[in-house]
UniProtKB/TrEMBL annotation:
A GO CC term assigned to this protein in UniProt: membrane
Organism: Streptomyces shenzhenensis
Database matches in PROSITE patterns: ADH_SHORT
Keyword annotations of the record: Oxidoreductase
Domain of life, source organism: Bacteria
InterPro entries: NAD(P)-bd_dom_sf, Sc_DH/Rdtase_CS, SDR_fam
Protein name, entry field: Short-chain dehydrogenase
UniProt cross-references to Gene3D superfamilies, sorted A to Z: NAD(P)-binding Rossmann-like Domain
Similarity field: Belongs to the short-chain dehydrogenases/reductases (SDR) family.
GO molecular function, one term: oxidoreductase activity
Amino acid sequence: MTLSSFDGVTAVVTGAAHGIGQALARQLASQGAGVVAVDVRRDDVEALVHELTDTGHRSLAVTCDVSCRSEVADLGRAVARWAPDGVQLLCNNAGVFTPRHALTATHEDWQWVLGVCLWGTIHGVEEFLPGMVASGRAAHVLNTASMNGYVPNRVSALYSTAKYGVVGLSDTLRLELAGTQVGVTVLAPSAVRTNIGNSEEVRPSRFARTREDPPDDPFADYGLSAALSPDTVAALALDGVRAGRDVVFTDPVVAPMLDDQLARLKGSWTTRGSNGSPSA
């Protein structure tokens, strides 16, 4: 099942204060959706909602740290009061990044990145998906992963781990939800002009690092195309939702990377001969 139109739906967008989330919120509002804009940055998300409401769009700002289950439960209650008919589009988009290798990351680094990028998505699913399914209405889940949820990156172990988890969750949900009115799309962007590199500015104190050392190099050269604007990526994502696509990639450069990865996996295949010894 797909949402052929966003007119009249209620959409929850996490990480809505900046970047892709902000672009999703604006575009959904312009297409007739009631938008619940969610972010840990109170002033910024409230400014976005003032912008939307001033131009005649129905919108609600909710300050929420999606890594915290109790705060997402509060979000659910706020949404239920604001939109008693429920949610038809859930955009689990909030994400953070810190430039740490697995060898240099602290436990708090892991907790924070997985808390927002993976557990934030899980919390959104826990809070809203049961009601979406029970309503019997056409609905959709859009989970923002990354090309790093499909192609590993030697300088983003924490981020890639989280995004691989988002992809696995999404692929499994799609199978579980077969026969229902709820679809699932993964957004897997490559380079995008966002401020995710400044995530440390909103790092909660409970995830403060227990030691100080120089950051690792956060960049890897994949030969990617030029970074896209958040508006372009959001438009691609919403087109994918309407079309019911499983995955939305944003850079054709990723295709041969996936081919190479699949070839390596197939090359690792072994069988056992009649004597029980492995053979290629």
